[in-house]
């Protein structure tokens, strides 16, 4: 353990250093200071476990130093040195959580007992902290294994997908508002630790991936694709990064098959079955080591879904509809709905709905005598002020100005 002395009397500092065999107490002297101001950088740099501090010092006294310690180094044990007649200071020091109190002139026996007491206290605190950290790690590892087991079940034929998703939600796993890439690693002799390390060492993947063994021959890597990632290329990038870290004994690379981005965890089962069909039936060239599986949904099906979305918005724009309403109507997740609409039309779905509402508002302003708030309500805006703001953004004028120019 490390100890620091703070006293404005030079002879006291020398006495503290020489009067006791500190090494026999398991102590290393890491610094001496003449006042609190000098002590602060030493405390910051050396990180002592115990500080012996005089109360009365110039520049910054012991009480001021203890105020700083309380805010910045609360685990540092402080033994206060005080002369007779300084009991008021001593009481203040104790209120600042001083760990010990010694009177001058110093008694070596009492000082040794105090150091031994605090050393035991520090050891106990460290032991409790280590036990707590160990328990937290074990709990985290247990939860991770349980999560991996649930995801493995999710990919199995005939899995009760909704039941498993419910369990994953209980484990604070976001099953709806994020996107995933499913990678299957096959044709490798690497073990558990090697595969996990190969994934964790990949820049941009570590911290957002879940790795588990689905069968003796296949590993699954599930990678969360955040909104900051390029959905179209992140899966390929991940596969290439992992491949770079895995080389077999003969110099060959494992087979890695990548799904396209999955916008709901409940689609992972289908994606996995498609990948395994490709692997088991050898539907690829032997020279291919990284393969991307395309979405099975055809362009005609996508077009049909987008037309259904447009029809829903056309029939319901007069209500304050939300993304969830549209997604439920067409049977898509919110994430995939936004992705598909943008991919097929080149437009953000909210921009499309807003533009349609503004066009309908222009018709009402042209064909009726409705007031602005009435027009707002008829095109799905409950707040006239927000409607006017959006109208001006799209048209360049307020509804009232637009009406006056007709």
Descriptive report:
Helix 2 (36-46) runs parallel beside helix 3. The protein is flat. 53% of the residues lie in helices and 14% in strands. The protein has 16 helices and 10 strands. The chain is of the alpha/beta class and 406 residues long. It has helices spanning 10-18, 36-46, 62-72, 87-95, 108-154, 161-170, 192-200, 231-245, 268-280, 299-316, 323-330, 334-345, 349-367, 372-378, 384-395, 399-404, and strands at 2-6, 28-33, 50-54, 77-82, 100-103, 179-186, 209-213, 219-225, 255-259, 290-293. The protein has 3 domains: 2-125, Rossmann fold; 161-293, Alpha-Beta Plaits (2-Layer Sandwich), CATH 3.30.70; 299-404, Arc Repressor Mutant, subunit A (Orthogonal Bundle). The termini are far apart. The strands form 2 sheets. A 5-stranded parallel beta sheet has the order 2-1-3-4-5, with helices on both faces.
């Amino acid at each position: 353990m490390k100890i620091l002395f703070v006293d404005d009397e030079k002879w006291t500092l020398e006495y503290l250093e020489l009067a006791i065999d500190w090494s026999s107490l398991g102590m290393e002297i890491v610094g001496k200071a003449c006042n609190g101001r000098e002590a602060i950088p030493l405390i910051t740099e050396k990180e002592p476990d115990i500080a012996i501090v005089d109360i009365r010092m110039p520049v910054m006294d012991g009480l001021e130093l203890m105020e700083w310690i309380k805010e910045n180094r609360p685990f540092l044990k402080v033994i206060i040195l005080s002369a007779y007649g300084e009991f008021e200071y001593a009481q203040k020091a104790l209120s600042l959580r001083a760990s010990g109190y010694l009177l001058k002139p110093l008694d070596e026996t009492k000082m040794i007992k105090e150091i031994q007491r605090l050393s035991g206290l520090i050891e106990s605190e460290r032991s409790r902290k280590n036990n707590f950290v160990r328990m937290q790690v074990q709990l985290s590892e247990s939860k991770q294994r349980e999560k991996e087991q649930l995801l493995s079940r999710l990919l199995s034929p005939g899995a009760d997908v909704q039941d498993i998703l419910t369990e994953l939600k209980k484990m604070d796993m976001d099953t709806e508002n994020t996107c995933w890439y499913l990678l299957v690693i096959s044709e490798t002799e690497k073990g558990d630790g090697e595969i996990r390390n190969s994934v964790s060492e990949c820049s941009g993947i570590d911290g957002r991936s879940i790795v588990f063994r689905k069968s003796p021959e296949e590993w699954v890597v599930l990678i969360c694709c955040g909104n900051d990632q390029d959905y179209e290329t992140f899966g390929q990038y991940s596969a290439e990064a992992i491949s770079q870290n895995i080389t077999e004994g003969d110099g060959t690379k494992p087979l890695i098959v990548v799904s396209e981005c999955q916008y709901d965890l409940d689609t992972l089962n289908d994606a996995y079955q498609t990948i395994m069909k490709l692997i088991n039936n050898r539907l690829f060239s032997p020279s291919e080591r990284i393969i991307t599986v395309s979405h099975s949904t055809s362009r005609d099906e996508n077009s049909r879904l987008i037309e259904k979305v447009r029809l829903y918005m056309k029939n319901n724009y007069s209500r304050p509809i939300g993304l969830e309403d549209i997604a439920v109507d067409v049977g898509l997740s919110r994430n995939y709905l936004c992705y598909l609409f943008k991919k097929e039309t080149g437009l953000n779905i909210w921009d499309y709905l807003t533009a349609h509402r503004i066009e309908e508002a222009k018709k009402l302003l042209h064909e009726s005598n409705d007031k602005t708030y009435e027009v707002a309500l008829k095109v799905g805006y409950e707040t006239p002020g927000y409607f006017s703001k959006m109208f001006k953004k799209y048209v360049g004028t307020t509804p009232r100005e637009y009406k006056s120019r007709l």
